[in-house]
From TrEMBL:
The active site is at Y39 (proton donor), K94 (proton acceptor). Residues 163-385 form the Malic enzyme NAD-binding domain. A divalent metal cation binds at E136, D137, D162. GO terms for molecular function: malic enzyme activity; metal ion binding; NAD binding; oxidoreductase activity, acting on the CH-OH group of donors, NAD or NADP as acceptor. Belongs to the malic enzymes family. This is Malate dehydrogenase (Oxaloacetate-decarboxylating). It comes from Salinispora arenicola (strain CNS-205). SMART domains: malic, Malic_M. Divalent metal cations. Prefers magnesium or manganese. InterPro entries: Aminoacid_DH-like_N_sf (IPR046346), Malate_Decarboxylase (IPR051674), Malic_N_dom (IPR012301), Malic_N_dom_sf (IPR037062), Malic_NAD-bd (IPR012302), Malic_OxRdtase (IPR001891), NAD(P)-bd_dom_sf (IPR036291). Gene3D superfamilies: Malic enzyme, N-terminal domain, NAD(P)-binding Rossmann-like Domain.
Length: 391
């Protein structure tokens, strides 16, 4: 008989015992009057009002402050395709972060299918219960189509956090790193290691934020993306057309030759010799977790600013800096979608929290900084109104 994978004395398992969240009532239920107001017969009047004017659901149900955290379990937090049931602890954790940092209620929805059509149909059917959809840990390239189709079909915000949350925080960090080094984003030569969900979104976000696309070089496992590659389709083919203006070819070392910035979102290891080929005084964001593409101590021998995805090193690029405030702002503005302008506004707000106190070890706020989510929410809500995507 095999031994159990659970150690009851392990503080991790003790913390997760019984789950990390529960549903509680926001109204009293201690009298007959309470029952008649919260449920029948009083609830019928609210139902009739919403039937006549559906937008009233934002005010008179939880939809105005609640999102669904949806996954198929195919790309879970460095664990890979572990399925929907095993993904549930991560989705619960995400929901707790929503509540703690953004005051947003969130419900984990783990779907027992990895078929694109079935996922889209399931989320569309669930959507009336929520004010937004946070897609989570869905593998590329399916995640691109799922997000696109849901964004087109629904009149509530749809946000794939593995793509856009990472991208927003990367842009914020790069803004501050460039400011610290008295550099302009438009002058930076950037190499991106990884062309999956995060790599695609980071590249597009940097371009939206002011980086020159012709000075971005993206690598996948086969080397530099460019017009010389005849094996590219979909989003990779789009990146090949958008980036690599000087037609570089070869591996990651070729992409890094003379680069000012390395952004690692691949999980693959990058040799020190390749990092040594970067321009002096550069920037490395090695974001693979738990093992960065370049160890921070190694990167620090060759560049001026280093960030990782880990909490035990300075400059943690953590999605929790973005998604609670993004959804809080989108919900507050009654946004129907999340635009590039809203994402850039979120990045600017994150960067602004620590803009007056930058050091090489502090280019982004702490994930626990209470100033972040309110600043992001305000900026995102304002951008939603400016972009005319509010109900």
């Amino acid at each position: 008989m095999s031994s159990s994978p659970v150690d009851p004395a392990d503080p991790v398992f003790r913390r997760h015992r019984g789950g990390k969240m529960a549903v509680t009532s926001t109204v009293p239920l201690t009298s007959r009057e309470d029952l008649s107001l919260a449920y029948t017969p009083g609830v019928a009047r609210v139902c009739e009002a919403i039937a006549a004017e559906p937008r009233l659901a934002d005010d008179y149900t939880w939809a105005g402050h609640t999102v669904a955290v949806v996954t198929d379990g195919s790309a879970v937090l460095g664990l890979g395709n572990i399925g929907p049931r095993a993904a549930l602890p991560v989705m619960e954790g995400k929901a707790v972060l929503f509540k703690q940092f953004g005051g947003v209620d969130a419900v984990p929805v783990c779907l027992d299918t990895q078929d694109v059509d079935e996922i889209v149909a399931a989320v569309r059917a669930l959507a009336p219960s929520f004010g937004g959809i946070n897609l989570e840990d869905i593998s590329a390239p399916r995640c691109f189509e799922i997000e696109r189709r849901l964004d087109e079909a629904l009149d509530i915000p749809v946000f794939h956090d593995d793509q856009h949350g990472t991208a927003i925080v990367v842009l914020a960090a790069l803004r501050n790193a460039a400011a610290l080094l008295t550099r302009k984003l438009g002058d930076l030569q950037v190499a991106v290691s990884g062309a999956g969900a995060a790599g695609v979104a980071v590249t597009k976000m940097l371009v939206a934020g002011g980086v020159n696309p012709e000075q971005v070089v993206v690598c996948d496992s086969q080397g530099v993306l460019g017009r010389h590659r005849d094996d590219l389709t979909g989003t990779k083919a789009e990146l090949a057309e958008l980036t690599n203006g000087d037609g570089r070819q070869g591996d990651m070392a070729a992409a890094l030759r003379g680069a000012d910035v390395l952004i690692g979102v691949s999980g693959g290891q990058i040799p020190e010799a390749a990092v040594a080929g970067m321009a002096r005084g550069g920037i490395v964001f090695a974001l693979a977790n738990p093992t960065p593409e370049v160890h921070p101590a190694v990167a620090a021998r060759h560049v001026a600013v280093v960030a990782t995805g880990r909490s035990d090193h300075p400059n943690q690029i953590n999605n929790v800096l973005a998604f609670p405030g993004v959804f809080r702002g989108a919900l507050d503005a009654r946004a129907t979608r999340i635009t590039d302008g809203m994402k850039v506004a979120a990045a600017d707000a994150i960067a602004g929290v620590v803009a007056e106190s930058l050091t090489p070890e502090a280019i982004v706020p702490s994930p626990l900084d209470p100033r972040v989510a309110p600043a992001v929410a305000e900026a995102v809500a304002e951008a939603a109104r400016r972009d005319s995507v509010t109900r």
